[in-house]
Amino acid sequence: RLAADEAKARGCSVKVCASADAEGVIAYYSAVVAVFGGAPEIVRKRERGDLGPVVHVLADGNAPRNVLPDEFAASLVNLNRFNRDIARETVPQGADTLHAFQVRADCASGRLQQWTLHSLHGLYFVGGVAGAAQLIAQPPLSALSPLGTGVRLGLLALAFLWLRVAKREDYENRYQDYRAIAEALRVQEAWCAAGMRECLVETSYLQMQQSELRWIQLALRSIYLVSDASVARPADAPSAASCVEWVAGQRAYYERAAKVQAHKQKIVSTVSRALLVLGAVVSGAALVASLVNAHAPKTGATAWLLYFLTVPAAISGMVVLLLQFYSQQRGYGENARRYQRTYVVFDKALQRLHEGGSEDSKAILAGLGHEALSEHADWLILHRERPLRLISTSSEQ
To answer: I want to staple 46 with a disulfide (CB 3.0 to 4.6 A). Which of 27, 183, 344, 351 is the partner?
Structure first.
């Protein structure tokens, strides 16, 4: 009651718990449970399920026991930031609440993805130009050495500033987390439309990342609570159009995404080989010319031959290194293989859906949901392990 009064005073909506198992609902869906005095059944249910912290408020005026752990306090910060970000997105007209959350999370993720890619491309471009400027300013272009050093230091300073802004705004993590929420809500929508409204995505999603990404489970749990996802509808069935569309849409997406990722990986490999060949050809030609003129008097042409003997190969090698780092950070190869495997799963499931009965279809959709959640978790972990960072391109390295 105290929490409800405070929520109303702050202009927040309050949901009435009409369930026969009110204690279980409160224990499961609350972000934090505050207990005044003893430890009722609600606390035991919450602790058994490891659902979140319980704060014991003492009657003697002393400080509360079991204060919020740091990682859970960070989860609440992330949850509030997610609320602010999706509040900026337009609510779809005529959509139910669960779908509206999915669309807004998807739009917020797409917007932040653009900022993440801009930051990533900017860092690699600035780093590449800085390294090239340092390499180009070699004899007989020694007069450009101060300019090359100035350009290099200036661009690296710009890159560090760029990186700091991106890290402060946390574009990358917000984009990845919101994408995870949007994809999980897609699965939840399909399960609800199939009549499996008791199946909750958060119970089988990101179980191995309880500390860092626990707030995503909190978000999914809260969205299910405040939306109309738990309300059964007469049209709920595995044969519902939305279920078939989800399976067919995911199948088409993974087929297309696997080809796109493989194509990008192929482009990087092709460009890398071409640059290495080009650098080798130029350096080889300069080497041949140097050998032919080995006994000729030293002139300005000799210095230029030495220049083309080393600089083109160094620049092409640096660019190839940057391309390989970029490809690895984007995970083109891993994504292509994972998307191809997931496409096969959805392709076979779509065939089985056209053949099986209602119960078989529910089992298929449940398995597909778990496969999709597993794929999303792998994608999220992969990109979490390769954060946005600045790669040094100095000639000394």
So the answer is: 27
